[in-house]
Every structure is written in C-alpha cells, then in structure tokens.
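Annotators were shown the component list below and the corresponding predicted structure, then asked to write short factual statements about the assembly.
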Amino acid sequence: MFDLSQWVLLASDASQAEGTTRVWTISLILVTFMMYLYIGWQSRVKETEGFYVAGKGIPAIANGAATAADWMSAASFISMAGLISFTGSDGLVYLLGWTGGYVLLALLLAPYLRKFGQYTVPDFVGARYYSETARIVAAICAIFVSVTYVAGQMRGVGIVFSRFLQVEVYQGVIVGMVVVAFFAVLGGMKGITWTQVAQYFVLILAFIIPAIAIANHLTGNPVPQLAFAFSEITVQLNEELSTLGFQKYTEPFTGFGNKLNVFCATAALMFGTAGLPHVIVRFYTVKTVRAARWSAFWALLFIALLYTTAPAIAVFARYNLIKSLHNSKVIDAVEEQVDGEPRTLYHLEDPNGTELTWAYSWQQTGLLHFDDKDGDGSINLAMKNRAGETIASEAVHIDKDIMVLATPEVANLPPPLIALVAAGGLAAALSTAAGLLLVISSSMAHDLYIHFFDPKASEAKRLTVGRVCIVLAIVIAGYFGIFPPGFIGEVVAFAFGLAAASFFPAILLGIFNRRVNRAGAVTGMIVGLAFTGMYILGNTAHKIIPGVETPWFGLIEDPNNYTWCFGIGPQGIGAVGMLLNFVVTLAISYITPPPPQEVRDLVESVRVPVGSHEPEAHFDEDDATHD
Amino acid sequence: MAETPENKSKSESNEAGNTPTQSVVRDPIGYWRTNLTVILSLLSIWAIVSYGCSILFIEQLNEITIGKIPLGFWFAQQGSIYVFVVLIFVYALLMDRFDKKYGVEE
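Structure shown to annotators:
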C-alpha cells in the first residue's frame, strides 16, 4: 500500500510539464460525470423492484455492457496489464480466471437464477435450502465479499484524482462518493445499470485507444491483439529479457509457482467469478431467461475486448520500459525524501539522448527506484554481468501500477489520450463500486432487515430502507477508501476463494440436483468457508493481523516456494475448498431426508424458461406422489 | 449430477393443463436432457482449452508457433478467451432453437 504523500508529490511535479494535460483531464472528467449524473436523474425509480433489479426490464445487450463495466474494476483497468507484464506467460491466471467464469455463469447459473426471479443471491439460497440460517450465511458472505472489494474501488477513485488532478486522495474519494450516491440512491439498480452502460464505453475507449496508438508506434500494426502475435515485438522482448538474464517472457510456470498452483489459482478465480453476488445479481435485471443467456454473451464479448488487449499492453509496456531505461544515462543525482526516508533520485536520459521526465516524477512517488550501484553513470537493468554471474539489478523496484498509468507518457502520447486514461480509470472504479454498493445495500436492507425485523413493511418503507442502506454502504466504502486497511490486496484472494468455496457449489447443486437438502448445503458451505478461510488466514496472518510476524503455517510469501498442500498457495486454495464443499454437500444430502416437495417443485420450475414472469411456479398437490 | 427426469413427466403434463399462466411443455425430460448434453459438450471444450491447452499441455503446444509466438502461450493469453466468447454464443443460439423445439420459449 502506498500512502498519500507520494501521489501528491508526483502530482505537484507533473503540473509544471502537464498544463495542457490537466485542462484536458478536468474537461473530460467533468463531461463524463455530467453524463453519469444526467443518466442517474433520468433513471430514478419509485418501486422496490426498480431499485433492486431495475424492474427486470434491461435489454440483453445493455445488461451485457453494464455487467462488463460492473466486472472490470480499477484493478482490471490500472493493475492487471502491469501484473501480467511481470508475470509473463503465467499472467493467464488472471486473464483466464477472470473471463472463464462467464462460461460457467452463462451455462450453469444465470438462466436458472433469472427464472427463479426475486432480488438477491441469498433469496435463492434461502428458498432453495428452506433455511433462514442459509439465508443469513449467504447474506453475510455477500456483504463481506462486497465490502472487501468496494474499499479498493473507492481508493482507486481517490488515486486517479490525485494523480491526474493534484488533489488529496480523500478529496477524490469524497467526490466519487457524492457522484455514486446521486445515481445509486435515486435510481437504485436502474440508475446504476444505465450509468454503467455509459461507463463501459468510457473505460473501453480509454483502454483501447492508447493501446492502438502504442501498437502502431512500436510495431506498425494498429490492432494490439494482432501485433502481439504476428509482429516481432514478443520475440524481441524475449531476446531483451534473455540478454538481461531474466526468464523468457513466454516461458510457462516462472511467475506463479508450479503447474498445480497455476491450475488451482485459475480455477479459484473462475469459479469465484461465477459465485460473486454482484455479478450474479446482474442477471436478475433482464426481461427473460433467453435475455439472461444473451446478456452473458454480450458481457463476455465486451470484457474480452479489454482482456485480450491487456496482454498486448503488458508486452508493449515491458518492452518500452527496458528500451528506454536500460543503459539510460544519469544526468544528475538528487537527494530527496521518499516515504520519509532520504533516497537518491536520478535525472535520466535514454540512450538516444532524450530526457526521461516521467522516470523522475515516478521515482518521487517511490513506485520506481534506481540505484547506480557501480557508479558508472548509467542504469543497468541486467541480472547477470558479462561473465554470466548473477548480480543485483540497478532497477531496485518497478511497481506494476506504473505499467498502465505511465505507458502513455513513456510512449509520448498526446495530452488528450493521457486525460482519457484518467477518465477511464474513474469509470472503471465508479461502475464497479456502484454494483457492489447495491449488493451490500440489498443484503442489509432486503435479506437481513426487512426479512427478519419488518417482513410486513410497506412498499414505500422498503424503498426508504434500501436507500438508507445504500447511503450507509457508501459511507463505509468511503471510509475504507480514505483509511485503507493495509491488507486489501490480501483480502481480494479471500473474496474469490470464499465465493468459489461457498456460493458456487450451493447454487449449482441447488439447480442441477434435486436431492441436495438443507443439511448438506449448510454443512458444505460452512466446511468450504472454514477450510478456505483458515488456509488463507494461516498463510497471510503476518500481513492481516497486527503483531503477527510470520505466517502461522510457516509458509513463505514467495509463490514459487509454497510447501504446503502440494504447493498450492492462498490464491488457489478456493478451488480445493470448492471440491470439499461439493463432496460434503453430496455425502450429507444422500444420508439425510430429501428436501420437501415445494423445494423440488422450485427446482423443476427454474429448469424451464417458460413462465419467468411469475415469481414462483405453483404445482399441484398430487405432484408429491410422483417422487 | 444425479438426475431422474422420468419422475417428472406426469407431473409436468398434469400441471401444464391446470395452470393457465404456463404454456404446454411438450417434453420436459427431453428438454432438460438436451440442455444437459449441450452444457456438457460445451464445458468439455471450455476445460480442454483453458486447463488443457493453456496449463497442462502448454509446454507441448509451445513447440508449435502461431504467427511469431508459441501456440500454448497464445492460448493462455488470447485464444482461450476467444473460445469462451464463442462457447457462450453457441449456447445461447442452440438454446434459442431448443426452447422453440420444446415449446418452452417465453
């Protein structure tokens, strides 16, 4: 976690050189925010159904765009390409993990949950397992998963503001909170959905236009996906890295542990994606079961546009970075305070004699750190010397977030394109935050408060409770955005692991197996949650719990050296937890009495698309005799 | 998945006659079986491409080159995602057809 001062430092320096960029950035952000507010005002709602599931009237293609914006967060937009850049071939964990889950959603969950109807994921779990305990466990899981996620989003809003507009992070967070509050409180799911549609277009343009410019500049081929595979760029990067003593970029199992760990981590992200409440609930908002299937297609198509561009950007950025930094000349070395410690910062110029102003401003943030160890006046990125012995690189630290944020500057793109990246990062963070806030609010208001304390509440009261809860959720998210707990990065592994180990098996078996009952599902969820939770906690205790120095399970942080559970790290353990859940649920269900008839009828009804306008299908009494 | 769709045939046809909001479902067992077959075939491709080509057998596929890069690497970072999109497209298309064939479309 980086703190406020570094971003502010960077911002103040940048302001001298980037006057025009700043004007462009302010204008673009203002225009897009006005658009979001206008859409929010146009989509205000008066009924609970509109508030929670947009009145079930969203067309498939619009829901696809909204789902894509909902899904692609500040992390997808800002961090993922950089992460892949340094993971190489094993970046597939993120690329496939965060897209493959949509196939599972489209084929196994979305159509049936849409047929079930109602408002939330806990609604389904509670009804299918005829259990208030199951509903509460599901609601609390949904809140926990969404809160961990949303904190990072509000932080992302603050960071983009401070980086591009030279304001404090907390001011950025507050602006973000006000904007989200406006359309979420007025329009609920309907306002959020239509705003997300607009945000999708902003974020995808912001991601793809700079990528096209860089692809064209580096390879002469403007299509990043084609440049990635058919130009020399990836081959050249491999050669550069080999010369410097690194693993080849395309070499598998070098950046994410052994093959089994890569396998499990990919599985945990895929099944976790399919189990995340804020994604599932998007499929409640469309008109029909058919529309749920098609909106899953549109969603993945829209997501794939960014996810197939990201690995190309990863290669371009790594290549650019090496080309401009390796053997760059030190013009001047200055002592400055970074993170409260004195550090030597270098003014550099690249081998062609162009001064690298961005390199200096990023050093001030602490995200980039050099040390001219041999004092020869140039920065050497190599890991090996001429004799082939391993040496320490003079690039002490290159943060992954730089790869997307600085790439437009590194590639010398014009100011409007740099401004576009700011607007895109904001769109990505705000759209994901809004979707998560709705899940938090619906879990608190609909699943917990109304259901347990005030089941007879009037329509008007339900809507008011929903609105109060969303304001509450925004305040919580904003608080974590301004005072981020140091372990946010670790907790995201929790979110996916827990979703995979709890929701996914419960929902899947609930649809595809009529025999699974309350005892099986509740025990399965608890076993999956406990196993996954304990394993992640045991592995990361030293990062999460203050005062703990080493992880409880004696594992080391290096993902290449996990010694427990066949080398599976905390990112992949959700896949094992999910298997455990399946086994336990099935075993217990078959040795305990079958679920009651109305539950079996519910399962039958969700399997057939016809009649999805009815909240529940009604079956004859004599149906009982057939089972 | 343990399934006994046979149990269901009578109840569905009974029910179809009694409930005015539901149209006649001609063959619910056939519909569900077809659905399961489609799901299983598409998910096999999903598993082969993502876990097979991109992870388990990536080294072998990397011996082959597509364009300028190793094939396994291409599957891992591009190809699998394209296949995912096509799989959902095919599923939505096929199910549109089967919804009509079995008379369960809305």
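Statements collected:
1. The longest strand of chain A covers residues 328-338.
2. The CA atoms of residues 268 and 575 of chain A lie 5 Å apart.
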